[in-house]
Amino acid sequence: MAQEPVATMREKARKVAPKLIDLTEKVLFGDVWERPGLSKRDRSLITVASLMSTYRPEQLRPHLQRALDNGVTQEEIGELITHLAFYSGWPTAMTAAGIANDVFEQQE
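Above: the chain sequence. Below: its structure as C-alpha cells.
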C-alpha cells in the first residue's frame, strides 16, 4: 500500500491548520529534533516506540523511514517491535511489523 509523501500530507494539513504545520516545522523539527541532548538516531527510536505503542500507524510510516535515514537498522526496528509487543500489545506489534515491511520494501 503506497503512502502519500510527507510533504503532501503536510500541505493538506496546512490548509486546515496552518499554525499546526508552522509549529511542526519550526518547533518540533526545527528545535526539538535539533537539540544536542539526544542523537537523531535515539530520537527516532523513541519516536517509533511511542508511535507504535500508541497505535499511530499513519505517523509511524514516515517515522520508520526517518529512523532508517537516521541510522537505525532494519534489524533494530524488528527488535524494537518484538520487545514492545510485550508492553504495548500484540496487535500494535503486528500492525507495526506490517508497516515496517512496507517501508523496508520501498527502500529496496
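The two ends are 15 Å apart (CA to CA).
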